[in-house]
Every structure is written in C-alpha cells, then in structure tokens.
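Entry type: protein chain
Record version: 2
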Amino acid sequence: MSTFVPTMTFHPQPQPGTPSPWAFPAPSRSALANGLTVLHCDRPGQQLVAVDVLVDAPLAAEPTELEGVATILARALNEGTDTLTAEQFAGELERAGATLDANADHPCIRVALEVPVSRLERGLTLLADALRSPALPEDEIERLVANRLDEIVHEQANPARRAAKALYAELFDSADRLSRPRAGSAESVKRIDRSAVKAFYDAHVRPSTATVVVVGDLTGVDLPALLESTLGTWTGDRAEPSKAAPVTADDTGRVIIVDRPGAVQTQLLIGRIGPDRHDPAWAAQVLGTYCLGGTLTSRLDRVLREEKGYTYGVRAFAQPLRSAPDGSGRALLAISGSVDTASTAPALADTWTILRTLAAEGLTDAEREEAVQYLVGVAPLRYETAGSVASTLADQVEQHLSDDFQAEVYRQMAVLSTQAATDAVVSGFQPDRLVTVLVGDASVIRDQVKELGLGEVTVVTS
C-alpha cells in the first residue's frame, strides 16, 4: 500500500517595487464669461466627481442682529428652486446619484456637490439652479430656524462645544465676529425670516466673486462647455471681493471655568492664536504640533493617557481662522481633551510640565521622524478621493494661498530639521500665553486650579 506524500510548490515571494513619486495634484485655472473662477483637476479613475463652490459671503457681513442668516441661507440652498419644489429637487438629486451640502463659515459659504461623472451635467445643472434661483420657501426657512434653535440647546449641553464658545469669547474682542457662534445665537436666530435670508442672498451670492473647484475623472468631458451651459447661466452684479479684518486676540494666560455642578468629567480647551498657513513656519508648526499631541504616541497622550490614566485622549491642533488677500491671518493653536473631575488640576499641572520640558529639551529626532513618516507618508491615501482633493483646493482658495501650497508643505515637512519643528511648537504653545477653558464642577476644581498659578481664575455659569 503506497502512502501519498503531498508536495508543495513554493513561488518566489513578491518584492515591493520602487514607490511612484507623489505630489499633491496641481489644478488648472480658468474663468467663465460670468466671472466665475474655475479650478479643475483631472483625476483618472475617480468616477465620483467632487465640485466645491466658494461664495464670497463671510460671516462678518451678516447684520449683527441677524447673525446666523448665512447658515440658514446655506441650508436653504437645496430646498427647491424657481422650477422645483424642495421635494422635487431632492428627488432629482437622488435620481442623479448626487449629494448637495452647504455650510457657512467665517470666510465664505461653501456648497459641495458629489455626482457620478456619467451624470455630471445633471448635477451641475441642479447646482447652478440652486445658486441662481433658490426658492427659499417661507415654510422651509421657518423649519430651518426652528432646527437651529434646537441645535443651540444641544450645543449648550455639549461640553466640547461649550468650551469652544467660551474660548472664542475670551480670546477675541466682542466686536469681532470670531467671538460669537458661527451659526448665530438664540437671540439673533429668532429674528431670521425669509426676507432676511433673501436680502443676504441678493447682497452676496454672485458668480463674479465666487470660485468653483472640480475634481474627478474628466476624460472625454468638455468641461469648459459644460460649465458654461450650467454654472455659466448664473448671473449677478459685479462686485469687489470682501476684505477680512486682521485677527487680533488677548492671549494673556488665564483660566475660565464654565460651571457644571455635579459633572464627573472636566472638558479642557487650552489655546491662543499663532501663525497661520501664510507664515513660513507653518510646515514646521504642523510637524511640531503633531509631535506634541497629534497621535496616541505623542507627548501629551504618552503622559496624560498612558502613564497617568487621566484621559482617553488629548489632542493638540492648529486651526486657521481667516486670512486676507495680502497674506495676513492667524490660526487657533489649541490643546483639547477631557479628564475625570478629580484629575483636573493634576492633568493641567502635567500639561504645563510637558510644555516647559519641551521648551528646555526640544523634540527628539525619533519623534520628528515618526511625524514625517505619518504626515508625509499617509498623504497619498488621504487624497485618494476626489472629494478630499477638492476640499483642500477649496481651502487654499478660501485662505488666499497659491495653488501649489499643499504640495509645498509636504516638500518642506520631508526635509525639516528636528530643531525647526521644536522652535515652531515651542513658540506656538508658550505656557504663559495660553487661555484655559474648563467645563466642569467649579466647586470641586476651582481651588486646586488656582494653586497652579496659571493666571487669573474666573468662574462663569453655563
């Protein structure tokens, strides 16, 4: 009786090839006859086309008594047109396999369309109609106002949102629109009606000061002709672009406690203003901030989460605020997280120790290398979709940056020294120039926080 002996054939193990060089895509620029600026980027294989429109309607242009009207207008843009009801418009978007979203922020209103390239003409037609002749039906405006008022109640109950509201109110002068909620307060939103929304639309929504970004597989698409037949039908008076006021802030070190009696956790938001993307140190600041608090292995998480067990996670970040065409602008530099109530003062003390140690000893080469490997190495995956590319190109337009800005940032980060990253993050996160907002039980945390000597401590009710 013979015994069967199985045999195995081993094939050579595949070896990785040489990685293809990558750079953030460079867009092409043009303009339509109506004055609309066009940026487009052909991305072969991306069958879902992303279209972002930036409308020059900054929050600073809102009447003070009607703050939030830009947000209501943005949300009303997909609630029907002069030829389609809200339900019909939603049905047409669905039949085109498209989504249309809009939001208002300090620099502008942004409208984002995603649609399969096979239905691009229909999607652009719907987008053009929404911008050219939105219905702004009174009943829908009333519904959107009611929804926003409900949101405000939830925002007040959300510790992270409440902390952000308090920090912006502390950092910026009360006359600066940055100091107040982006989507308006309950007092201002209550006053918004259809006539207010229509007046804001008439005053600010026009193609001559707007920009459209189109990204996707445009093979075989006559994009100039398609845009002229769709977004080219949008008309409006010519106007000068809006001008952003300089950003100033009082970042004298101090502590604001937003009292939440009985809270078992304290929400921390520690911040100041610093350089934005126009500053030559931006790439180094991104690198250094990542080393400080951008990941689970960063300094803040390593101490506050892994060693001390105060928190599930703490993050450091830099968020651009607003910028002007002349390149002036600032960013919010901040540290955010939450800790259990009893650990509030110890967590703050350790945070300040981390910052002072960073200033005295600097980052290590290993920290810098890990940050570069992630930030630069993950970029090709981060920008794999048309939507992510379009959003970043729109950010560059919004912040008056050059078309090659993002590509240049990655080039800089790849070669920046450890010392450059250290200098940027130390300069940005100066311990005596940080405003600390704590949302928690003041009766438990106030005295211990005062003993830390972080500046004047003020308690406010929520």
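Comment: The first helix runs from residue 69 to 76.
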